[in-house]
Amino acid sequence: MTQITYDARGLAEPFADAPRIAEIDGERARFDAKDLTTRTINLELRRLLYEEGVKEVEIDNPGSRHSLAVGILTRCRIRINGSLGYFGCGLVDGPEIHVTGRVGWSACENMMSGVVVVDGNAGSLTGAALRGGDLVVRGRVGARSGIDQKGGTIIVGGSAGSMTGFMMQRGRIIICGDVGPGLGDSMYDGTIYVAGKVKSLGIDCVPGEWTDADTEFVERKFRIYGLGSPPELQKFVCGKVLYNYDLLEPAERKLVL
Amino acid sequence: MCGIAGIIYRDGSQHPIGDEITRMLQSMKHRGPDSTGYALYGSSANGNLVMRYKLADANTPRDFEFEERLRKHRAIVESRLASLGARIDKVDEETPYAFRVSFEYDGDLKLLADFVEDIPDAEVLSLGRSLEIIKDLGDAETVHDQYGLSEFTGTHGIGHVRMATESEVDIAGAHPYWAYPYSDVAVVHNGQLTNYFMWRRRLERAGRRFMSECDSEIIAVYLAQEMGEGASLKEAMDKSLDELDGVFTYIAVTKDELGVAKDELAAKPLVLYESDDLVALASEEIAIRAIVDGEIDTYDPFEREVLVWKR
């Protein structure tokens, strides 16, 4: 087992270097993360993408470590053979990431753009504050998925927990299974589609009117990710009552007047 | 933050659960460095009762008479057990202040526990024919080595690493909590209970005792109260979801069951792995990975879920 060092601030492995163990074949590379720490895995990944010019990276044995593949700000393909812990694939902008296992809490938090596909389940807070890109979870997701979502699309093949889309501001969520209580609670905007049972709607979340644009959007996403024919979905949107949408903000009032 | 973990072998086979829970807890050391605790279920020699108790806490002043006081109080414990008709088989001194006593006894367990705890600074950590609670300050490897847990084999167990938020860093505030006086029942908890004082007053009026200021102790005592009135573990846990306020995920164990409950907000994490022969659960998947090799399918239970497995 690798001994992890900490600096005075409590940061792990402040002096770690990329282990340089990946096998590189042109624009492709692969390495085994089994005996590496979180920091050295991320350092190796960044070395390949930013220094070696690699465009496709495959990582074996991630071992459910937290915070892997975060902050990747370049277009590339990453395949993770296994499961991730908390905060996996957060703060990314551009990559296409395929996780063959499961991810823990807060997967893809603050993702700006790109695609993340998870073959297994995901924990709570999946896609928290998602700003763009597509996040596809083939299994189920935990509570508060899509919390504070500001853009992009979250597609869930299974069911979702309570408070899905809590304080959602923009973007779309598609749930193919059931959802727990408080769907879309306190949402400002955005759209939530649900195929299964809705235990209860949250404050200011109301059924929306289905349009051709919804059909086109859902079918296109299902086609892109090979999800088959979309199930029959109910649409939910913000009722726009909770936050006094009839009143203008001071800055807006100045512009109007 | 705290971290909780549990394992149960469904076929009832014996495994080195002292080592296994240690590996799980040590992988979650970052969730709580203050103290570590275990509730392990083995089989005591000759079906004897096993009592784990301590005679001092981490914060007990180590004055000049400390060691003499420990010797004196230990002698009183053993004489009180004998006076109740208990036939002591073996006494292990795990640390200068923590002891394991194996004995034969057919009488009232509550009376026995009360009689021992009447001795100054004495606390019965666990009492039962299969449950043994071990807890102390430090990380899992420290406590494991201190109490020789590599020798413990059993069918199931739970553990806890604590980041103290609601009460002091001491052994009394460490989990698991025994469901006094209900033998062989223990609880670990991650979260905060907001109606702690209401329930504490209510349960104290019903004759239950509390040994700490930690809100988590409520769960163990609450379950003991419900099960004492005839509820099954599942029924008691289901009811707790309506009666306990706050954010919580807790694991409760009996001599042949292990259950988990999540509050209605599902605010505290829990990852679950089920196979034909094993159920393992923990606050983080890396803890399960510490005892299960290879890729595994795991999931988070949803809000208000109570799941119970039998061995």
Describe it.
- The complex is a heterodimer of chains A (257) and B (311).
- With 257 residues, chain A is of the alpha/beta class.
- Chain A has helices at 38-51, 212-224, 250-256; strands spanning 23-25, 28-32, 56-60, 77-81, 93-99, 113-118, 134-137, 150-156, 170-175, 191-194, 205-207, 234-238.
- The longest helix of chain A has 14 residues, at 38-51.
- The mean pLDDT of chain A is 94.
- With 311 residues, chain B is α+β, with helices and mostly antiparallel strands.
- Chain B has 2 domains: 3-43 and 130-310, 4-Layer Sandwich (Glutamine Phosphoribosylpyrophosphate, subunit 1, domain 1); 44-129, Histidine kinase CheA-like, P2 response regulator-binding domain (Alpha-Beta Plaits).
- Chain B is built from 8 helices and 15 strands.
- In chain B, a hairpin with a 3-residue loop joins strand 13 and strand 14 (278-282).
- Chain B starts with a strand and ends with a strand.
- In chain B, 51% of the residues are buried.
- The mean pLDDT of chain B is 94.
- The chains are: A alpha/beta (257), B alpha+beta (311).
- Chain A binds chain B through residues 63-66, 82-83, 85-86, 100-102, 104-105, 120-121, 123-124, 139-140, 142-144, 159, 161-163, 180-181, and chain B through 264-267, 269, 271, 284-286, 288-289, 295-300, 302-303.
